[in-house]
Amino acid sequence: MSTASRLPQMVSRITSRLPVTVDAAVRRLAVLSLIGQTILVVTGGAVRLTASGLGCPTWPRCTEASLVNTPEMGIHGFIEFGNRLLTFALAAVAALMLVYLWNLRKERKDLFLLALGLLASIPAQAVIGGITVLTKLNPWVVGLHFLVSMALVVFATLLVNRAYGRTGRYMTHVLPALPGVARPVMTAVALFSAVAVMLGVVVTGAGPHAGDAEAPRNGLDWDLFSHVHAVPAYLITAGTLFACYMVFQRRIAGPFRSAVLMLLGVTLLQAVIGFTQYYNGIPALLVGAHMLGAAMLMSAATNAWDVARYSPAH
Fold first, then answer.
1. Per-residue pLDDT at 263 exceeds 80
2. Contact 79, 46 (CB under 8 A)
3. 122, 90 Cβ separation under 8 angstroms
4. What long-range pairs does 105-110 form, CB within 8 A, spacing at least 24?
5. What b/e string do you get for 181-207 counting C-beta neighbours within 10 Å, with b at 16 or more?
6. pLDDT at 3 exceeding the cut of 80
7. What is the pTM of this model?
8. pLDDT at 2
């Protein structure tokens, strides 16, 4: 029997061993995707904050003569190339998720499409990262790179919720009814979170920690845009506090309560980090913590909005 004739049988044997329901392995891969996307934000921040943005001075190779970093490039080359390698790990997780979902690709199209989107985004992110290097860390391209990562955190959060049956068409949890105002409030909080992140990119492009001593800045007033960036942060805080008031005043339990309290914790943490870094000269370590906080905020806001969206109203 030729290899070509044996191939369908091999594929059939493999697919017969794959899950036919959303099992623990699928859920673990969804959580791993979210963790991985968050770590990528942190490692990307480490590249910039350690001035390693041009540790690999070209792309797709690390140097003109080497695919990988060399000892002569020192710690900056190691940090930059390590960040590039992480994208391959994320690609492996996304590809494995698609494999595990193969038998469910029609029944659970929601999961399959989210996983496919995460996998398809990785080469797109790699190209944007390459343009970032080739433009010598143009702040607008660096900002786009970060914003795509934020979008992937959002998609990964939705993937986790769908995999655990918390939200979506295939919910396995019964969500308690919420006041009618809950859904628009959480939608506004999620939108303001996105606006805050986008304005944060503008602030970053105007301030220090460009990723390299010779990297250009966007030429905007850093202090002015820091205050503009704070406006949606105040609105996020107000919306989250109002949601907390609803939760305790109406004695709402379940996933929405947990989502709102998580969002409150992340929001307050981000506020403390933001104010502390502003009044202490923008130390690199706090900037990195603020970037991690931004990923956590987008995930928490997405989760709260997603739960409110699928909760019945009364």
1. yes
2. yes
3. yes
4. 108/22, 108/162, 108/170, 110/162, 110/168, 110/169, 110/170
5. ebbebbbbbbbbbbbbbebbbbbbbbb
6. no
7. 0.92
8. 52
